[in-house]
Design a protein that fits this description.
This is DUF1501 domain-containing protein. This protein is α/β, with parallel strands linked by helices and about 400 residues long. Helices cover about 35% and strands about 15% of the residues.
């Protein structure tokens, strides 16, 4: 086997972030304590006004005559003002148990330019500004790890078809990519170990990759075993969630992956419905596979920006500013929509087209970190999210 080829393959399965900056849709880091945090990046700018529909605002119908219809269009009423998109129906039991919540009218500091690339980079970098983000910039989840000396390279993971800037940085992480398979026989693994015993770089990369690949195969086989012949195949999001849960049931305390498919310029009902079903499947997979650990888990799903308040001529919406985020888990104080509603009346919109942000979206994961891992305000606003105005604690955790 070609040495360069194997090292590249090994890096796609598992590597130290400090040594090989190739990153991942799934990443993990060991931390003390029993609390767990899962961060899901929703790539493509989810329309928060359709996910958590403010049907009680009289201007919504005027601006969206055919989208976000509220209970009249099949959405599930939450509190008499907001309704949840019907594609999230499977999550209604979590809402009723107080394990599902939303925050509305949130945004990163990114304004005006509406580029997916810059918006996603700023969301994951966790810094202020309007992009582009320097290639050397690390991510806020990695900076969290850098503030915690207990974090170990043995329990940090990263894989990927999609780079996760969120976890890029000096703190070591490991990874797993579901479509990468080393396909080495036990004899080949033994031979590799003998041939490259005195080559530390190759030996360590190979050992880590083989270990991660073996464990991933075990998880995937276990997940696939109960499937009946006519059962639907788990989505990619569900596979990522299943593997995340397996790691979180062991040493890992943080997991992060992304779900794509939220860019709904046209045919929004079809586009958004499909993406939301994947998100719901991922959350329910986490709930199922985490078992009792679900009660100590907080899931946060964030997107780079919202979409225009007015629907366009193709049954879609275009890039906007203010949006919404989702929170789930047994550690979440759910059954409510957080945030100050700015209204949709004339003069209330951002640049007369977008939902006006009333809070920095970074404040929610910051307060979650404070509650889950005991991170103080100085580190949150000085290191993890530089310059963030934390504001009042919204009380999202039990």
């Amino acid at each position: 086997m070609d040495r360069r080829f194997f090292l590249k393959g090994a890096a796609l399965i598992g590597c130290s972030a400090a040594a090989m900056p190739l990153f991942t849709p799934v990443s993990f880091a060991a931390m003390p304590g029993e609390n767990r945090l899962v961060v899901i990046i929703l790539r493509g700018a989810m329309d928060g006004l359709d996910v958590v529909q403010p049907y009680g605002d009289p201007d919504l119908r005027r601006l969206r005559p055919a989208l976000s219809m509220g209970p009249q269009g099949g959405a599930l009423d939450l509190d008499g003002f907001y309704a949840m998109h019907p594609a999230l129906k499977s999550l209604m039991p979590l809402w009723q148990k107080g394990q599902l919540a939303f925050a509305h009218a949130v945004a990163t500091p990114y304004r005006d330019k509406r580029s997916h690339f810059d918006g996603q980079d700023l969301l994951e970098a966790g810094i202020a500004g309007n992009g582009p983000v320097p290639s050397s910039q690390d991510g806020w989840l990695n900076r969290l790890l850098q503030t915690m000396p207990e974090t170990s390279a043995e329990t940090a993971w990263s894989v990927g078809a999609q780079e996760m800037l969120l976890l890029a940085g000096r703190a070591p992480i490991r990874s797993w990519e579901p479509d990468t398979d080393l396909a080495l026989t036990p004899q080949a693994q033994l031979l590799l170990g003998q041939v490259y015993h005195d080559d530390p770089l190759f030996r360590q990369a190979a050992e880590a990759a083989i270990e991660i690949d073996t464990r991933a195969t075990e998880v995937m086989n276990a997940d696939a075993a109960p499937q009946a012949k006519d059962a639907p195949r788990p989505s990619n999001a569900a596979r990522l969630a299943a593997y995340s849960a397996a790691r979180l049931n062991e040493e890992a305390r943080i997991a992060s992956f992304s779900i794509t498919g939220w860019d709904s310029h046209k045919n929004q009902p079809g586009v958004l419905g499909g993406a939301l079903k994947q998100l719901a499947e991922a959350i329910l997979t986490l709930q199922r596979d985490l078992g009792p650990h679900w009660d100590r888990t907080t899931v946060m799903a964030l997107t780079e920006f919202g979409r225009t308040v007015r629907q366009n001529g193709t049954q879609g919406t275009d890039h906007g500013t203010g949006g919404a985020m989702l929170m789930a888990g047994g550690a979440v104080r759910g059954g409510r929509v957080y945030g100050d509603w700015p209204g949709l009346a004339d003069g209330k919109l951002f640049e007369d087209r977008d939902l006006m942000p009333t809070r920095d979206v970074r404040a929610y994961p910051a307060w979650a970190m404070a509650g889950l891992f005991g991170i103080d305000a100085t580190r949150l606003t000085g290191t993890v999210f530089p310059g963030l105005d934390l504001g009042q604690n919204p009380g999202i955790l039990l």
